[in-house]
Automatic annotation (TrEMBL):
This is 2-oxoacid:ferredoxin oxidoreductase subunit beta. The keyword rRNA-binding does not apply. Keywords: Oxidoreductase. Residues 68-215 form the Thiamine pyrophosphate enzyme TPP-binding domain. The keyword Oxidoreductase applies. The lineage of its organism: Bacteria, Bacillati, Actinomycetota, Actinomycetes, Kitasatosporales.
Length: 356
């Protein structure tokens, strides 16, 4: 290899390349989209492709990393860089990419099985580190790719091929899990609500650090109708709580219901709003330093009926981003000690040769 006097750019100086005018078509790959007819993944793909031009980034500065599952076909269908990686490890691979190439917009696409079962540890550590990643967690409450086994989000009693007498496992609430892992941005949306999904994507993309977006996604083959109660217009009025920062948490017909805090326990409860208790209705603060109230909101959802399910941004706070902190450490090390020497490190006094 010919020698060069060029040096690698410092991590802190890496900046993404701006793009000219783009359209949704620019982000569609030449690959045939192959999901089951009627799958919610089609709607999510269309929403993401339609949103990508808003980033204003060249396609070579955008990367989608997936694990294993139906959702993990996603990188094939995006006309960007991408990697279809291994089961549960997408957050780990994306972490390495985001920290070494700070000029990239890195997106993780995963499912409830991929992210919360074999990938559980990778997910929570990416969240707590606050790596600059956007994680789209497709939740259909079933294993679809392997033909209908129960998943970590399946409700208790779920009859599947792997639980013929009903699941005994208490399901994860992905939003609660993310908040417990100190994620700085946590949101929930629905595959069939294009406007809401796009707005949540917009806020996630603008966030500095890890953003986790849970997307309720229908699997019409192995778990059809799992989210009908929050998709049907009439039922959704009573079931869905639409969160907006700075607005009272009210829902139902004519906003007749609201969320209040029980002064005795500190828990949140749903009440009929009256002139007497209207002033007690919680005002949503997505930027609150403590995740306590966001966590309490996430626990309102009933895992069996999905009544009182909050959607929208539950938490969005600022915290130092891992990528930037790491880049500064490396820059400081180079300034103090000069460039590293990998060969000298490998041949140093703290290495041994083990004879066979």
């Amino acid at each position: 290899m010919a020698e060069t006097t060029e040096t690698a750019p410092h991590l802190l100086s890496l900046v993404p390349k701006a793009a000219g005018k783009q359209t949704m078509k620019d982000f569609k790959s030449d690959q045939e989209v192959r999901w089951c007819p009627g799958c919610g993944d089609y709607a999510i793909l269309a929403a993401v492709q339609g949103f990508m031009p808003e980033l204003g980034l060249a396609k070579e500065n955008i990367v989608f990393v997936s694990g294993i599952g139906c959702s993990s076909r996603f990188p094939y269908y995006m006309n960007t860089y991408g990697m279809h990686s291994i089961h549960g490890r997408a957050p780990a691979i994306a972490t390495g990419l985001a920290t070494s190439r700070r000029d990239l917009s890195v997106w993780v696409v995963t499912g409830d099985g991929d992210a919360l079962s074999i990938g559980g540890n990778h997910l929570i550590h990416a969240l707590r580190r606050n790596v600059n990643l956007k994680i789209l967690l497709f939740n259909n409450r079933i294993y679809g790719l392997t033909k209908g086994q129960y998943s970590p989000t399946s409700e208790i009693g779920k009859i599947t091929k792997s639980t013929p007498m009903g699941s005994l496992d208490a399901p994860f609430n992905p939003v609660s899990l993310a908040l417990g892992a100190e994620a700085t941005f946590v949101a929930r949306t629905v595959d069939s609500d294009r406007k809401h999904l796009t707005e949540v994507l917009r806020q996630a993309a603008a966030h500095e650090g890890t953003a986790l977006v849970e997307i309720y996604q229908n699997c019409n083959i192995f778990n059809d109708g799992a989210f009908d109660v929050i998709k049907d217009r009439e039922q959704a009025q009573e079931a869905v709580i639409r969160l907006e920062h700075g607005q009272p948490v009210r829902f139902g017909a004519d906003n007749g219901k609201g969320v209040v805090r029980d002064p005795a326990t500190g828990d949140l409860a749903v009440v009929e709003v009256t002139p007497r208790n209207e002033a007690d209705v919680l005002v949503h603060d997505a930027h609150a330093a403590s995740p306590t109230t966001a966590f309490a909101l996430s626990r309102l959802a009933d895992p069996d009926t999905l009544h009182h399910t909050p959607i929208g941004v539950l938490r969005s706070v600022e915290r130092p981003v891992y990528d930037t902190l790491m880049a500064r450490q490396l820059e400081d090390a180079v300034e103090r000690q000069g460039p590293g020497d990998l060969g000298a490190l490998l041949a140093g006094g703290d290495t041994w040769t083990v004879a066979g």
